[in-house]
Amino acid sequence: MSRRRIVLLTGCIATGSAFVWVSSQVASSAQGRMYSLADAPPAPVVIVPGARVRDGRPGAFLRGRLDVAVSLVRDGRARAVLVSGDAAGRSGNEITAMIAYLVDQGVDRDLIVADPYGLDTFDTAQRAVRTFGVREANIATQRFHLPRAVALCLRAGIDATGVVASGKARPMSQIRSHLREWVLSRPKAFLELRFPRDPAVSTPPDDTLAEILAVR
After folding, report:
1. Would you say residue 54 lies in a domain?
2. Is 27 part of a structural domain of the chain?
3. Of 120, 141, 127, nearest in space to 185 by CA
4. What's the pTM?
5. How far apart are alpha carbons 21 and 49 in whole angstroms?
6. How far is Cα 131 from Cα 4, in angstroms, rounded to an integer?
7. Number of folded domains that form the chain
8. Does 91 map to a domain?
9. Across the chain, how many H-helices and E-strands are there?
10. Angle, to 10 degrees, between the axis of helix 3-28 and the axis of helix 146-156?
11. Does the first or last residue of the chain, that is N or C, have fewer Cβ atoms within 10 Å of its Cβ?
12. Which of left, alpha, beta for 157 (phi over 0: left; psi -120 to 50: alpha)?
């Protein structure tokens, strides 16, 4: 094998090893805190992070997350739902789509609190604490995303557990999402966990969630 090929192969192995190590570091704090829907513990709030919408309706990933919230509320394992996403997202208004879906599935609108500035998972976690006063919650998302979501919630100060949502998306969507998670999102979270920043949008405290929990 030529020297050039050896150097290239060595570089690829080193890069791949670095991504694996970073990913494992992000996921390590979430160990023991991730559950199937059937085994999920109760929590006052279930957080639903935003995702792509299509023609004003939740896409496959987002539906899976919302279905977890519906089940937890119906079972009495959640007293409120915090939907957190981008109200001006490239695919559409995630918040409007999430609220409409939950209400259509029978969740009382008065139990839903909206954060239109959850622009990424880090912001969702930080704003849940800073703006809405969340201290304990389940967070519902797909298995590939869940370790990062739980880790960032813990870093924000939430006693968080994760609940696995279904991910019945098209194969190419699955591949893109997994690649983005490993190559972009987890390295970014690795830095955020060590050097936390302020959310992109800061707003005054909102007592809506506390008021819902106080009367239930």
Report:
1. yes
2. no
3. 120
4. 0.90
5. 25
6. 54
7. 1
8. yes
9. 8, 8
10. 50
11. N
12. left
Assign residue 50 the CATH number of its domain: 3.40.50.620
User: Using the 8-state DSSP alphabet, how is residue 166 labeled?
Assistant: P
Burial track 171-199 (b if 16+ CB lie within 10 A, e otherwise): eeebeebeeebbeebbebbbebbeeeeeb
- Which residue range(s) make up the domain with 167? 32-214
Q: Are 210 and 133 a contacting pair, CB within 8 Å?
A: yes
Q: What pLDDT, on a 0 to 100 scale, did the predictor assign at position 7?
A: 62
Give one DSSP letter per residue of 10-38, joined into a string: HHHHHHHHHHHHHHHHHHHTTTT-EE-TT
> 3-state DSSP call for residue 47?
strand
Total Cβ atoms within 10 A of residue 135: 12
Residue 96 lies in a domain: yes
The Cα–Cα gap between 208 and 216 comes to 13
